[in-house]
Amino acid sequence: MKYAVALSTLAALALSANLAAAQDRELSIGLGYSEFSRSGAENGALVSLDYRHTPFFEKGIFAARFGAALDVQETGDVFVGAGVAGKWDLGQSWFIDASILPGAFVENVDLNDLGSTFEIRSQISLGRSFANGTALSLALSHKSNASTGNINPGVNSLQLRWHIPL
Hints:
Order of helices and strands: HEEEEEEEEE
Number of strands: 9
CATH architecture: Beta Barrel
Number of helices: 1
CATH class: Mainly Beta
Largest sheet: 8 strands, antiparallel, barrel
CATH topology: Porin
Radius of gyration: 19 Å
Distance between the termini: 34 Å
């Protein structure tokens, strides 16, 4: 019986430690619109999923963390990337979130070709957190191959994102 109580206490402590660490992770769901720079490309709606891991560096109002994203255009074009994200706490529940995520872009429409499969998504957003831990942000992103491909037209997106703590 003594061992069962000790094991239960240890399990509860471990679980609470994991839950405390997990509160820094989040998933955001975004809906928006993308405009391709290339003439004749098909612009359209965008759905995105972004994951932010527990910060690996924190100082003052800044926290750096690893992140990943999946963006799907209504045309069937897909971007998957992973990289680094930063978040600045501006006070009074406001924040700025920025990320640079190298990854792969696969176009479904020929004129939506961004010049290579390798693309980098840079994104910045302004958001507001709520008392329940969720947040809402407005994000602007750009995908480009940084002139590593034969062409580099790029695509810009504006989206509204709902952040959910994990």
